[in-house]
Amino acid sequence: MIIVTGANGQLGRMVTERLLERVPAREIGVSVRDVDAAQDLGAKGVRVRMGDFTGPATLAHAFEGASKVLIVSTDSTGETAVRHHRTAVEAAAKAGAQRILYTSHMGSNPSSPFPPMPDHAATEEALRQSGVPFTSLRNGFYASSAVMLISAALETGVLAAPEDGPVAWTAHTDLADAAVLALTGETLTDAAPDGVTPALTGPEAIDMAGIADILTRLTGRPIRRVVVSDADYRARLLSAGLPEHAADMLVGLFAASRDGDFAPADPTLADLLGRPTVRMEDYLKSALAPAR
Ligand SMILES: NC(=O)c1ccc[n+]([C@@H]2O[C@H](COP(=O)([O-])OP(=O)(O)OC[C@H]3O[C@@H](n4cnc5c(N)ncnc54)[C@H](OP(=O)(O)O)[C@@H]3O)[C@@H](O)[C@H]2O)c1
């Protein structure tokens, strides 16, 4: 049985729905915190069990009979995230899984200034120590994250952010398809002989100036890229009501991007899927369609 965690979240749900096109429903189990929210999957024959990374006993039940487990990283950071992921890795090993898959991130690095990156690096270490064959999917930067970074610019016409570097923006749909391939075949073991995949990214790395150009084309209104200091950006975020940890996270994101941690684009994902990956301009065109 293939187990997918986080199946009520965006990526986990997409993976599960795409898995259903390739694998009989009775061979798929989801581990979710809210079983009611996954009723539609249950109706299709998927085994739905409650599993919370804060409760190892719930995971023992949710992962029962697992041959492979896809651990979708949780939306926490720091010690909490690492504790969640370690608990899930241990539970998958105890359940007898023959392979553990994990949604890591390009730029996973113990000393990155972007807080989720050391968390992913620590989880990859836990995977190495588990003794179970694993595939750490080094997912590219979500294209959807850019939509959050540009929302103010769409109002003001000014994309104000710290100095940055190019980012290989990547669509959830492409990453979900890659996870399905990794769960249903051995395709990714060739690309990741030591368990860690190359960066799985969209086709091009684009910096904030490039994003401003795309927005200008898509909206027909000039969107100007303005570089502000880290301190100024942080102050603006705080005055807009963001909590400190969220502001620090975004400042860290720009620091890591200007170090080149989210570039370059890598052909592995397109090669794996056997088709071109989603271009950022096309992604933004559909994401912004209702707003334009
Ligand atoms: N590659 C990137 O650029 C990028 C960007 C942002 C985030 N990420 C990572 O990718 C992950 C998946 O992305 P997404 O878009 O699917 O995010 P999402 O929709 O926010 O999903 C996060 C999932 O984590 C689950 N979760 C949270 N706490 C949990 C716990 N204690 N036990 C078990 N599950 C728990 C949530 O469960 P519920 O549905 O029950 O809430 C949810 O399904 C994120 O969580 C984050 O780690 C990657």
TrEMBL record:
It comes from the Bacteria. InterPro entries: NAD(P)-bd_dom (IPR016040), NAD(P)-bd_dom_sf (IPR036291), NmrA-type_oxidoreductase (IPR052718). Residues 6-142 form the NAD(P)-binding domain. This is NAD(P)-binding domain-containing protein. It comes from Streptomyces malaysiensis.
